[in-house]
Amino acid sequence: MNKLRIGIAGLGTVAQGVLHLIATNGDLMAKRTGVQLSIQRVASRTTKPEVDLLGGVFSNNVHDLVADPDVDVILELIGGEGLAKELIESALAAGKRVVTANKAVIAAHGDQLLASGNVPLRFEAAVAGAIPIIQSLNQGLAANRIESIYGIINGTCNYMLTVMEEEGLAFDQVLSQAQALGYAEADPAFDIEGVDAAHKLTILAALGFATSYDFSALYVEGITQIAAEDIQYAQELGFKIKHLGIARNTDAGLETRVHPALVPTSELLASVNGVMNAVQVVSDAAGETLFSGPGAGGAATASAVLADVLTFAATNFSEREPSPPESQGTATQIQRVAMDAIPSACYLRIPTLDQPGVFAQVASALSAHSISIEAVIQKEPSSADTSVSIVILTDMVVESAVNAALKDLAELAAVVGNITRIRVAPTH
Ligand code: HSE
Fold first, then answer.
1. Which fold has domain 340-424?
2. What pTM, to 2 d.p., does this model score?
3. Is the Cβ atom of 191 under 6 angstroms away from ligand 1?
4. 137-294 maps to which CATH number?
5. Are strands 253-264 and 239-250 parallel, antiparallel or unpaired?
6. Does any ligand 1 atom lie closer than 6 A to the CB of residue 193?
7. Helix (H, G, I), strand (E, B) or coil at 154
8. Which CATH architecture describes the domain 2-127+297-327?
9. Which H helix or E strand runs over 58?
10. Set 85, 96, 103, 200: catalytic member
11. What's the pLDDT tens digit per position in 384-400?
């Protein structure tokens, strides 16, 4: 039987997941593809004697993988940008196939790495963990014009919002749980500040809309300002709060944005909970399709890494990424819409003094920017509180007008804390 000889860079959660999955399902994979996966080498800064390397030779230097003529495919599972990018480039230059789970590198350097077309570089695991969304966009939906992509694409954020909702816990309490479960990035700020989701959306937008990998074009906001009470108020208004990546083709151009959003409870995306990710793609022929599955964790991510390895194996090692459209002269550099120009309905939680006339001041500040109120919640404060939250759901209003209104509201003497603004997810 043919062998595909693997060199693994990194020995963290995902690399260990890959080793474990080959140990348990390697025979099944061989039966399916006619190719036996074998571990030739494993390279990592730190040794982990407790991990079974399945016969792979250990070294501390990832460049040993490139130098070894007996390594056919290199799995870049070290993360980060510097060394990872260097490894990918030198491996490709040496004629190796490369599989990476590295969304940061692809989001920042995808155009450059894939520029020559026909590059044997695959990155299914970079977006949405186990979900085969890259293959679905590149192949399954290839006949379609994509209208929008909405994704719950950060497992840590979704896990945290779900636990905050179900257990009423505060933000800081649930972050450490997500870290302990192996969902969070090495620097969890990447998760909670939206950077990880933005890396992934950059990739989805590039593939879905045949445009460049342009991380800098995205609007990025995380979940750090969301409190358990926002989740409760949202529920009363008929919504769940989800952290969404949105890429949407509109008459004004392509919206690419990552932020928390109110999703109507009746939408399928609203019931995607915990570490589960989901990507909804709306396209002209296929209509609305929804892909859902675990978005983080060693085993789930290993499943996607090995899907790429097996694609190389099943096609007698010849499978390449589809050439990026820009290398074929067909790229449409779609105009991106500035965040300021995007209209949304908005949830506002405004902490105010509990005094007569305050609501009128708030309403008048909104009205001065032609913002119409759709719904209001104001509860009795507890006896200990001197302030009260006014929660407002606005009608559709362009971002720049809300920003101006928020500035005016913050200057009112009766407003006594930070205002929380959460956009309602657009209908598609
Ligand atoms: N930290 C990421 C997440 C891991 O929480 O989704 C998978 O990319």
1. Alpha-Beta Plaits (3.30.70)
2. 0.95
3. yes
4. 3.30.360.10
5. antiparallel
6. no
7. coil
8. 3-Layer(aba) Sandwich (3.40)
9. strand 57-59
10. 200
11. 777 899 999 999 999 99
